[in-house]
Design goal:
Alkaline Phosphatase, subunit A, about 525 residues, alpha/beta
Length: about 525
């Protein structure tokens, strides 16, 4: 096996960055993630460049900002012309295996209107080979349960109701009806070990996706009581949701419209109505789901150790997006708050151990993962890619012209489960925002709504909008110009490195690794 170069890309779902022990979450027990952080580099200022799941995964796996891939919401198709990580790996001789999901809707020009994939929230992105798919409609998981001899209820999703006939759906400290050995986390781990044991001697790439800690927020025993609500951090929010709603029309819409039913199977009521005790219990359950993932990752890591593959494997741990988790009275991944966009990123590069355990504070983004993996495997990074390889940064050698801002976007057009476009009286193509922020300031620009500007040092919770404060006018202008420059710099550029010349076609593309 000497010389093999394997890649394990672990993509969890809805895991926010401040729930990482290496970054200060001492209340959380994740020994296997701790090991990965101790042997790799943990990136402390990492964001997804889009939410929710579909746009986030499109950016992660194409290396493109949302303004370029344009899969702007769940259910919106991804243009077939875009290169993605799966396709790029095939170009260099890898058969990219995928466990989990990508929430990708196919390009309708490549198929017909009756294609069943247009009736689901998403399917697998072209280029990957599914070896443990969760989409569409979780059929693979529920089939696995039946094959294990588990009798499925008439409504299959009822496995995520609390245990006990007297249980009331909603925030609870009761376990789910499905046991831990048959949870979706166990299913994904089973599929991973099956793949790894069957792949043979060839180098491999595995996208190992986990559904958790995505809702419904209910954990199987014993994880349901692993954490105490009183040990959880308190939510960051104003005195009332009405106070929060005054900040911006979009925030007002979500505070009025997000339901608990999307986060607790069978529940009702507004998410903004959850009191602090309920939020702490929800966070305790959230942590339990994280520890369940960690225990299962331990099984995968143990196999890599036992087969002497750990030393040949690049391991990347990240999430698609974050989770509001009661902060600002919100649940989910929406709007413009940091909790939705800041996510974990840990990279263990077996080639370089000199910075093992380091916390890297350079600004990094989800679009950097694709070029990092391709760079490590010796592939050429496509000109269109908006990200840059993190291998030099992880080694402590930040390249010149590295970004000095974090950037992310959100599109809030009407889709079947949320209709802000209609409620706010906006046109479909007016429903977008972009954010630029550094250590000091955060600017949020809307296509057709008022902007926001925050001083992160004086107001880390982002409660006071300074966009209309006269004394801040110069700063607001400066950061608005930064946002415009970012968009100009990263406009789609697949062919912009070429030009016709007297001697024929001339290739003027920037050298590999140059963000220019």
């Amino acid at each position: 096996m000497a010389g093999r170069r394997n890649v394990l890309l672990v993509v969890v779902d809805q895991w926010r960055a401040d729930f990482i022990p290496a970054l200060g979450a001492g209340f959380l027990k994740t020994p296997n993630l701790d090991r990965l952080c101790a042997e790799g580099v943990t990136f402390a200022n990492h964001v997804t460049t889009a939410v929710p799941c579909g746009p986030a995964r499109a950016s992660l796996l194409t290396g493109l900002y949302q303004m370029n891939h344009r899969a702007v919401q769940n259910t919106v198709p991804l243009d077939a012309r875009h290169m993605n990580l799966g396709k790029a790996l095939r170009h260099i001789g890898y058969d990219p295996a995928l466990i989990g999901y990508t929430t990708s809707t196919p390009d309708p020009r490549t198929t017909g209107p009756r294609d069943p994939r247009f009736t689901y929230l998403g399917d697998l992105m072209d280029g990957f080979r599914g070896v443990g798919a969760f989409e569409p409609t979780m059929d693979g998981y529920f089939g696995w349960l039946a094959h294990q001899g588990y009798e499925l209820p008439a409504q299959r999703e009822d496995i995520w109701l609390p245990e006990g006939m007297d249980a009331v759906p909603g925030v609870t400290n009761r376990p789910s009806r499905i046991p831990a050995e048959l949870s979706d986390t166990a299913y994904f781990t089973d599929r991973a070990l099956t793949y790894l044991k069957g792949v043979g001697e060839k180098p491999w790439f595995l996208h190992l996706g986990y559904y958790r800690p995505h809702p419904p927020f209910i954990a199987p025993a014993p994880y349901h009581t692993m954490y105490r609500p009183e040990d959880m951090p308190a939510p960051v929010r104003a005195a009332t949701w009405q106070d929060e709603a005054k900040q911006h029309p979009l925030l007002d819409f979500y505070l009025r419209g997000v339901s608990q039913g999307s986060f607790f199977h069978g529940a009702g009521g507004a998410a903004s109505a959850l009191d602090e005790a309920a939020i702490r219990q929800m966070r305790a359950t959230y942590c339990g789901l994280m520890s369940e993932i960690d225990d299962n990752l331990g099984r995968v890591f143990a196999y890599l150790d036992a087969t002497n593959q750990w030393k040949d494997t690049l391991i990347v741990f990240t999430s698609d997006h974050g989770e509001q988790l009661g902060d600002h009275f919100l649940l989910g991944k929406i709007g413009y708050h940091d909790e939705s966009f800041r996510i974990p990123l840990v990279v263990k590069n077996p080639d370089t151990q000199q910075r093992a355990g380091a916390i890297e504070r350079a600004f990094t983004e989800s679009v950097d993962v694709f070029p990092t993996i391709l760079d490590w495997l010796g592939g050429d990074i496509p000109r269109a890619i908006d990200g840059q390889s993190l291998l030099p940064v992880a080694a402590g050698e930040k390249p010149p012209h590295w970004r000095d801002l974090l950037h992310y976007e959100y599109d809030f057009r009407d889709i079947f489960y949320s209709r802000p476009e209609t409620a706010l009286g906006l046109g479909m193509d007016d429903c977008s925002l972009c954010v630029v922020q550094d250590e000091h300031y955060k600017y949020v620009h809307f296509a057709a709504l008022p902007p926001l500007f925050f001083d992160l040092r004086d107001d880390p919770g982002q409660f006071q909008n300074l966009a209309e404060v006269p004394a801040c006018a110069g700063l607001v202008k400066q950061y608005a110009q930064k946002a415009l420059s970012w968009r100009l710099k990263h406009a789609e550029r697949t062919l912009t490195g070429f030009r016709a010349a007297p001697g024929g076609l001339e290739d003027r593309r920037a050298p590999k690794g140059d963000l220019a």
